[in-house]
Amino acid sequence: MSIHAANFRELRLDRLCRDFGTHNAVKDVSLTIRQGEFIALLGPSGCGKSTTLNLIAGLLPATGGGIWLDEKRIDPLRPEERGFGMVFQNYALFPHMTVRKNIGFGLKMRGVARAESDRRVAEAVAMVRLQGQEEKLPGQLSGGQQQRVAIARAIAVQPPLVLMDEPLSNLDAKLRLEMRAEIRRIHNTLGATTIYVTHDQEEALSLADRIVVMRDGQIRQVGGPEDLFSRPDHLDVAEFMGFRNKVSGRVASVADGLATVTVGGLGLVGRVRTPVRPGEAAHVSIRPEDLHPVRDGDPGLPAKVVSTEFHGREFVGFARMADDTPLTFLADSRIPHGTDIRLAAQPDSVLVFGEGA
Amino acid sequence: MSAPATTTPAIPLGQRLAARGLDGLTLLVLPAVLFLLALFIYPFLYGLFLSFTPKAGGALANYQRFFSDSFLYGTIATTLWLALPVTIATLLLAIPIAFRVRLMRHQRLLTTILVIPITLGTVLVAEGLLNYLGPQGWFNRTLMTLGIISSPVKLLHNYWGVMLSLVITGFPFTFLLTLSYLTGVDPALEQAGATLGAGPWDRFRHILLPLLLPGLAITFCLSFVQAFSVFPSAVLLGAPAGPTRVISIAAYQAAFEEYDYSMASAVAMIMGVVQLVIVVAVLGARGLLYRGPAGGGKG
């Protein structure tokens, strides 16, 4: 395989900003990406992750800060001068060109000789396993095949950087898993550097070497998947990493990185993630899969069951506390609506955040 | 249902018709059909027959007369010589303006301004041009004051007067159609082109133009048919006895100066055939183009 990524050391975003009128879509985003990394920009819609990607691609001009590829400042360059490969959410295949012409378009624009171009198109086609489909028009392909063409088109020019904007969001669940593995395989084979935008934390966790969690146009936390998953630094990040239960209480005591937070008369013990002091208000985050009903008499958060859903291997229960705080938990069996229960979690799986977090 | 008892239960007629798309709603088409029959099909057939019943001579006498008299058959070339350049000029004007307007924030305002000529009507535009372009009009006076020309440019009562007025009145229509075809092209395609290294010209040539061409072909046909049936501006701004003696003037003269409706019908039929030939040729060429969706994928 002679397709390989062009060489560079690092891509650096330096206090990058993008305003739309008075709205700051991206604010002071600084990030260094090393060659060969698979970076996921993760966040809810409207958090600025796609805007950041478009700024890197050059499809949007930045309103502040700069982008550097090694020692070269690239943010004044137009997209066609940057030479990054991009995979669009709706694929953006040229509908009037065959698969072969779509994939060869970038090579043609770069004036690559015919024979060389044919060879590289064939390699890209093989890379995404689309042999035999070269003469078809995009409209004749399935969604997954179109996605492969879009990837092949982006990598055929051997770009230093491949940008992907929620590439899997238009595919069905099964295909999504399949293409996820494909994308990682292609990234590894090419030795490419990939920036991947997604709102799906599972996608980010399974694909990326490093995840950049964004919220309100700013970076909240950067870290490896395992790191983010178990040690989120921020309440938002925790919520995004599956800590769906959020209850508020008051700190009773802090010791050895563990805090006891009083919620509804009960002392919940958890790991301190942002500084808290006794007497202050605090938030407690727990994953549904770590929250279970306890036997009568054992201590736990009192709540009333709203409903239970069967999810195949387990039951997912929904309950409300006296102050209407919703709780989601795992149960072994269906619990009748209206049952009073107590829910508890191991201190290790409980996170405590200060009020300001 | 009082259908006769059969061995297999018959599906009611109404249901079968509905399955083929015929139901009560279909009746709503009737007024339109009657309208078309009364105001289009019947007059057309009437004219066609009328053209074969000349005042004197055999059934084809009108056509023989038309094609043997250069004063008559020459109008085809005269009209084509006006209509084709006008159509091409309006298209060539509309494409870049539509490209620019597409990216503008106050698109609606600008579109409204550009479309105003459509509401004015040919005669008002012609009157305006008569004043504006006349020997004492602003146009010539400005150019003379600036010293660009020493004597007034003659832009009225000749080919250029008609040409200008047709471009002005035809432009809004061409522009609106072009704009709508252009906005139908997924903007992500251009962005994809840019990330693949295509500059503005390559993006236009390889991506937008091929996707626009089928629409431009339709726009061409509609604008051409409009320009080909030019009458008011050819009379008001042109030289109706000479260089802008278009085919509709020939038909008018046959009908209202010679009172030969049969001849006038023949001219009208010839006019229709010429338009048809051009339109069929353009649409035929369009058939060779890609005509699928102008979007980038599912979505």
Commentary on this structure:
The complex is a heterodimer of chains A (357) and B (299). Chain A is of the alpha+beta class. Helix content of chain A is 25%, strand content 35%. Chain A contains 9 helices and 20 strands. Chain A folds into 2 domains: 10-236, 3-Layer(aba) Sandwich (Rossmann fold); 243-354, Beta Barrel (OB fold (Dihydrolipoamide Acetyltransferase, E2P)). Chain B has 299 residues and is mainly α. Chain B has one domain: MetI-like fold. Helix content of chain B is 70%, strand content 0%. Chain B has helices spanning 13-19, 30-51, 61-68, 70-102, 107-120, 122-133, 138-145, 159-183, 187-195, 200-228, 232-236, 247-256, 261-286. Chain B starts with 12 loop residues before the first helix and ends in a 13-residue tail after the last helix. The model of chain B has no long low-confidence stretch (mean pLDDT 88). The A-B interface holds A 57-59, 78-80, 82-86, 88-96, 105-106, 109-110, 137-139, 143, 146, 150, 153-154, 157, 163, 170 and B 186, 188-189, 191-199, 202, 206-207, 210-211, 290, 292-299.
Q: What labels would you give this structure?
A:
heterodimer, A: 357 residues, alpha+beta, Rossmann fold, six-stranded mixed beta sheet, five-stranded mixed β-barrel, 9 helices, elongated, B: 299 residues, mainly alpha, 13 helices
